[in-house]
Amino acid sequence: MRHVKWIFVVLLICSLTAFVEKDKPTGGLSVGDVAPDFRIESTSGEQRPLKLADLKGRYVLLSFWASYDAQSRMQNVSLNNVLRSDMPNVEMVSVSFDEYRSVFEETIRKDQIVTPTCFVETKGEDSGLFKRYRLNRGFTNYLLDGNGVIIAKNISAAELSAHIKEIG
């Protein structure tokens, strides 16, 4: 009878862990995936539209955020500050999913975002870009290598510094 009890415990534990995929992110794209190409219009008429493929050969940090999502907004600000200060070899592309351009403009003013590649997608969660990057489980950021392959996801400013020093 004692063996039956232990067999039951082992089977129970195995059944609970069988459905858990370790090291698998809960949403969005994964490290090793090629980032989908996209084209986005500039926030002002001063710059031309950006096409991700045009940045091939350079390291790119894609930062997806919205003013109503405090965590993604803070992450965007800290990453922008790091790149502005000591990482000229990485191009940041910051994309907000605020539905109102006025909210976006006020947010980048308050947050002092000065990147020339800061965009707003006013279709918000209905945009093709939002769907292509599978952001339905939360905003994130991706570090891409020169071939557009995701080499890091959801990185902090400190982790970004470490990745760039590692790369060279």
Number of strands: 7
Computed CA radius of gyration, to the nearest angstrom: 20 Å
Domain tally: 1
Q: What's the main sheet like?
A: 5 strands, mixed
CATH superfamily: Glutaredoxin
Strand portion, in percent?
Answer: 15-25%
Give the helix tally. 5
Structural classification:
alpha/beta
CATH topology: Glutaredoxin
> Termini, distance in Å?
62 Å
Order of secondary-structure elements: HEEEHEHEHEEH
Strand order of the largest sheet: 5-4-3-6-7
Structural shape:
globular
Determine and state the CATH class.
Alpha Beta
Protein name: Thioredoxin domain-containing protein
Pfam family, one: AhpC-TSA
InterPro entries: AhpC/TSA (IPR000866), Thioredoxin-like_sf (IPR036249), Thioredoxin_domain (IPR013766)
Domain Thioredoxin: 29-168
